[in-house]
From TrEMBL:
It is a multi-pass membrane protein. It comes from Leucobacter weissii. PROSITE patterns: ABC_TM1 (PS50928). Residues 100-304 form the ABC transmembrane type-1 domain. It holds the Pfam family BPD_transp_1. The keyword Membrane applies. Its main location: membrane. The keyword Cytoplasm does not apply. This is ABC transporter permease.
Length: 319
């Protein structure tokens, strides 16, 4: 009686490893060369512009016109905090810090209001029937079907002197209200624009929760505040953190709403960057402002990753 022959005994070592790799590959799974075109496109159109902006922030400004002079300098970053007069005296200049402060305040107000509005809505959506939940998610995502400019112009029609708000105000005897081209209109536009970005992550965190556990807590004598604080809020925390980032960072650098609804009366960081690349033709300084915002975003993401590791909760920055 002969012993069974191992079919891999006569194969070369390289052939055995290649065959083992093919066996380990799951059905329908592509190798890494199939993802190479997508990786190249991502590097070209995502990483490429970021690298260009970072390089431009360390370049010099030409004497006239836009563009950059390829000479290394830290002047764009120094000019963010200091100003040099014609005599060469350098003094602290808080103007751009005030712009950052105004942008930060508007972004914080947008984030807080969106959170206060979104959490009850997302909780209510998560407690509905599956069919109704799908319909409610559809209603929340309907604004994404229309271009942002179209939605902003619609708000301009609503808030102008002859809009529906002023018509209702005059009909009730309150007179005409100055709403359009004010900081209030800009703030309202930001809240409307970014509200779905807060609702959807919180809803995604609560959608799979078995609310019979909350009912059991009620049966055991827990109050509504205790149930929300000890059961629902910990479950919704990853969605809340994701929503805060998805709302705060775009609202911090927003451009469309402050210009169209606010009339550009309040200078924010998005308007400042656009003016540096446009009217002022100071590309290095505009790039430096963009890099500062990018660094703030990186710090926020690192803080979220640190929180996720310490708490053991997985936080995903996605809708």
């Amino acid at each position: 009686m002969t012993a069974p022959v191992d079919p891999t005994a006569t194969r070369p070592v390289g052939a055995v490893s290649a065959a083992a790799k093919r066996e380990r590959r799951r059905p329908g799974q592509f190798g890494w060369p199939a993802s190479l075109p997508a990786l190249l496109i991502g590097l070209l159109f995502t990483v490429g512009p970021l690298v260009i902006i970072i390089l431009f922030s360390f370049m010099s400004r030409p004497p006239q016109g836009g563009g950059v002079v390829y000479e290394f300098t830290l002047e764009p970053y120094i000019g963010f905090l200091f100003q040099t007069d014609f005599l060469g005296n350098t003094t602290f200049d808080p103007r751009y810090l005030k712009v950052f402060g105004d942008s930060l305040l508007q972004a914080l107000i947008t984030t807080v209001v969106c959170l206060l509005l979104s959490f009850p809505l997302a909780l209510w959506m998560a407690t509905r029937s599956p069919k109704l939940q799908s319909f409610l998610v559809l209603l929340v995502t309907i604004p994404f079907w229309t271009n942002l400019l179209v939605r902003t112009y619609a708000w301009m029609l609503i808030l102008n002197d002859n809009g529906i708000v002023n018509q209702a105000s005059q009909a009730l005897g309150f007179g005409r209200l100055e709403l359009l081209y004010t900081p209030f209109a800009s703030q309202l536009g930001l809240i409307y624009t970014f509200l779905p970005f807060m609702v959807l992550p919180i809803y995604a965190s609560l959608a799979g929760f078995d609310f019979r556990l909350a009912e059991a807590a009620y049966d055991l004598g827990a109050r509504k505040r205790a149930v929300i604080r000890r059961i629902i809020l910990p479950l919704a925390t990853p969605g809340i953190i994701s929503g805060i980032l998805l709302v705060f960072m775009p609202a911090f650098g927003s451009y469309v709403q402050p210009v169209l609804l606010g009339g550009g009366k309040v200078l924010l960081i998005g308007n400042l960057i656009a003016s540096q690349f446009g009217d002022a033709r100071n590309w290095p300084f505009g790039a430096a402002l963009s890099v500062i915002i990018l660094v703030m975003l990186m710090i926020a993401l690192i803080a979220i990753a640190f929180y996720s590791r310490r708490s053991g909760r997985k936080v995903e920055i996605s809708l």
